Amino acid sequence: xxxxxxxxxxxxxxxxxxxxxxxxxxxxxxxxxxxxxxxxxxxxxxxxxxxxxxxxxxxxxxxxxxxxxxxxxxxxxxxxxxxxxxxxxxxxxxxxxxxxxxxxxxxxxxxxxxxxxxxxxxxxxxxxxxxxxxxxxxxxxxxxxxxxxxxxxxxxxxxxxxxxxxxxxxxxxxxxxxxxxxxxxxxxxxxxxxxxxxxxxxxxxxxxxxxxxxxxxxxxxxxxxxxxxxxxxxxxxxxxxxxxxxxxxxxxxxxxxxxxxxxxxxxxxxxxxxxxxxxxxxxxxxxxxxxxxxxxxxxxxxxxxxxxxxxxxxxxxxxxxxxxxxxxxxxxxxxxxxxxxxxxxxxxxxxxxxxxxxxxxxxxxxxxxxxxxxxxxxxxxxxxxxxxxxx
Length: 391
Description:
Number of helices: 5
Oligomer: single chain
Number of strands: 27
Distance between the termini: 11 Å
Strand content: 25-35%
Radius of gyration: 22 Å
């Protein structure tokens, strides 16, 4: 990578990652507007008192995401003829330690989220728009609050086995009992793979499927119907149009380090027009297909993380927003992300501070939320870290 390109990447990354900056006129927020209560310049002493008083200003409108009723709100692709209109999607927590591999069902998920949970390990949350047609999925593992906060805005049902104190508190606070199923106490949605259990601990051996979950949903009288029209998770490019070409540059491969234990890498397959996933130095296999998992879209989002009291569980900061990168079609683009409260949606917006929704091409999406302390390891095209300018 040349000096000029690295310097440009540095400038882009810095603009994306900064949540605030200072100017001579005062502190400026990430959106580019002065914080509440500040002004860009002092009022001249000759101006009357009434003129010095701040005048009410209209609140800027946040551009809304437009949802195409003919498209799957999780992928932006055209709905199939048998689309389950009005039915909630299902989010399933998946084990992702090496002892739990290979997993099943990832290639069938519409969305996959990956984040550190504790001790450097990551956990996956796979989301299915039609749980009735879901293949065998697992191993199903326990709930974590960072995943719960990304599940709430989807209006999804939630399947897990046990959970952290913080995850359980959130599910209770938001009255999710009728939409969440804990297989530790409600085992109807799970089946033990006895053959796998001969060589793996029992916590790595619980699986679900469309048939099992459908039976459990009826048995436990889960709330399977959406409260209203389901909103699109991103501002998708209409599926009848040509995909958008990302402006940033080429991205044939990328590397994400979550911790000293966990990592993910992706290689762009031009023939499939998808990114092929690896982890732990090997292809990330779906046992149902026998092949590596692939995705159309990748979102790599960076934020602050810390430890909860006790020093084990990881706390992810969703309140402040942050910078990130969008990958599609073998190219990259810098973005910003915003969220806020647990029930508020994850928003992917332009890196220029205008909060314009980024147009995401239709397809299946992988979303990594990564600690800022790991940003120096992030690589595109297997070059030097993107945060680091060339010497």
